[in-house]
Specification:
With 333 residues, this protein is of the alpha/beta class. It folds into 2 domains: 138 residues, NAD(P)-binding Rossmann-like Domain (Rossmann fold, 3-Layer(aba) Sandwich), CATH 3.40.50; 181 residues, Rossmann fold (3-Layer(aba) Sandwich), CATH 3.40.50.720. The chain is built from 12 helices and 12 strands. Helix 10 links the parallel strand 10 and strand 11. Helix 5 packs across helix 7. The longest helix has 19 residues. It binds nicotinamide-adenine-dinucleotide (NAD). The site of nicotinamide-adenine-dinucleotide (NAD) has 31 residues, from helix 7.
């Protein structure tokens, strides 16, 4: 029996690589543009497997897709998929764990340095025909990078890659990660969340979006941070309360922020956050390079092809289901 594979939604120009991978298992492939739960329920009734970018795959959706066996997420974060509901329904869920580690780490570093060296402020000066070093006010003050402290929220793959890069610049690294008990990298020390926010000169967020991390950076946290601190978020927008961040930037509670993710994507273009001072926003693009994009498209489809061939994919998030899945596949042979 061949599988019907459906792409619920994807923003990439073409799906040639997915087609190539899935042709190898004779699967049919349909590209959809689902935005809501209802869209997915209506369009994916015959799906054996889904490739998902941002469409919401909630418990409700999972309960109404009778044939569904597997979901593969285009990316690392799986916050749009209810993984525990999928697990209860014996649906395997995969992500692509390591296609863009270097891309996101170098992007976070770029945002950090751009803001720490106050490039937006100085660029703005030149646009306003200001070429003057005689009156360095708070908005223009820069401290030497070497010796400053970077606090990482989360200590997984991207955080560790960033730690390696900044160590070469003489930046000291601390991290907060309640799920890692052993120091993941030499020279990185584990601290409490309170210590991280109050002592770090730069904070970079690299945890997943979960009920625990949603809204973690709120008004209290911004008030506790150093007024010279820079925040970088390349993880998920909803880890930061956008209205609290806007207040922090407008009131000078922190010195700047670089965001690749917002609470709402794409944003409301009238959102006043977007015009806050010392803010750089990019459109959820940290993962992107020509090479990482190709890897992402191929590997997302390959996970489904692997499962069809009864091989365990590298990014399987509920491996405990795999033995039962094999039994069901073999009983249909
Ligand atoms: N902007 C982009 O283009 C882009 C691209 C890839 C990944 N991401 C995001 O980056 C995040 C990190 O990716 P990764 O590959 O390093 O993931 P990873 O799974 O390797 O690491 C995540 C780390 O976060 C930790 N963590 C979990 N809950 C936490 C909490 N409450 N507080 C602090 N730490 C916590 C985990 O223990 C783990 O060590 C992903 O979850 C994804 O959402 C964004």
């Amino acid at each position: 029996m061949t599988w019907n594979v459906m792409i619920t939604d994807v923003s990439f120009p073409d799906i040639r690589l997915e087609e190539e991978e899935l042709k190898k298992i004779n699967a049919s492939l349909v590209r959809l543009n689902c935005k809501t739960e209802q869209d997915v329920i209506q369009a994916c009734q015959d799906a054996d497997a889904l490739l998902v970018q941002y469409a919401p795959i909630t418990a409700d959706v999972l309960n109404q897709l009778p044939r569904l066996k597997a979901i593969s997420r285009y990316g690392i974060g799986v916050d749009m998929v209810d993984v525990s509901a999928a697990t209860k329904k014996n649906i395997l869920v995969c992500n692509v764990p390591d296609y863009c580690i270097e891309e996101v780490a170098t992007f976070a570093l770029s945002l950090l340095l751009f803001l720490a060296r106050r490039i937006p402020t100085y660029q703005n000066d030149v646009s306003n025909q200001r070429w003057n070093l005689s009156d360095i006010d708070d908005a223009h003050r820069v401290n030497r990078i070497r010796g400053q402290i970077l606090g990482l929220v989360g200590s997984g793959r991207i955080a560790q890659e960033l730690a390696k890069l900044v160590t070469a610049l003489g930046i000291r690294v601390v991290y907060y990660d309640p799920y890692v008990k052993v120091s993941p990298l030499d020279g990185m020390s584990s601290v409490s969340f309170e210590e991280l926010i109050t002592t770090s000169d730069f904070i970079s967020i690299h945890c997943p979006l979960t009920p625990e991390t949603r809204g973690l950076f709120d008004e209290r946290v911004f008030q506790a941070m150093k007024s010279s601190a820079v925040l970088v978020n390349t993880a998920r927008g909803a880890v930061v309360k956008n209205c609290a961040l806007e207040q922090a930037l407008r009131n000078g509670w922190i010195a700047g922020a670089g965001l690749d993710n917002l609470e709402q994507e794409p944003p409301d273009w009238n959102d006043s956050l977007l015009s806050a001072p010392n803010l750089v926003v990019t459109p959820h693009i940290a993962f992107y390079s020509e090479e990482s994009l190709k890897d992402l498209q191929r590997l997302t489809a390959q996970s489904i092809a692997d499962l069809y061939r009864q091989n365990m994919p590298e990014g399987l998030l509920n491996p405990e289901l795999f033995p039962g899945f094999l039994q069901r596949m073999r009983s249909h042979e």
